[in-house]
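WARN  no MSA supplied for this record, continuing single-sequence
INFO  ligand: zinc ion
INFO  echoing inputs
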Amino acid sequence: MNNNPQWVDDLSAFCFPENVGMTVEMGGEVADVITKTHEKMFPCYECGSIHQCINWRGVPHDGDGGFKDASGKTWWLWIGCHLGPYQWAYEKIMLILIDNPMDHQ
Ligand SMILES: [Zn+2]
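INFO  complex generated
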């Protein structure tokens, strides 16, 4: 693992070679997370902007905090800061989640 990563546009290229984009079609708890967060946002303390809960990514994961897809495979879920290399884990995002202001118009 590279402990001093350079920022790259494609987050899949670094840190987690097995990580893949999560889709609703994967079903199970993975689809639940995508569905329940798709209109939510969170403040990114790394870059100071507000990020939408889109482009969930996952890494195969057997420990606590994982989510199963329809096939029973468990994933650790995260969203990448698109302005820097920071990876927001699901648990951290849930702590700071805010409603999309568009919901309240
Ligand atoms: Zn950010």
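The pocket of zinc ion is lined by residues 44, 46-47, 49, 51, 81, 83-84 (CB under 6 Å).
INFO  checksum written, moving to next record
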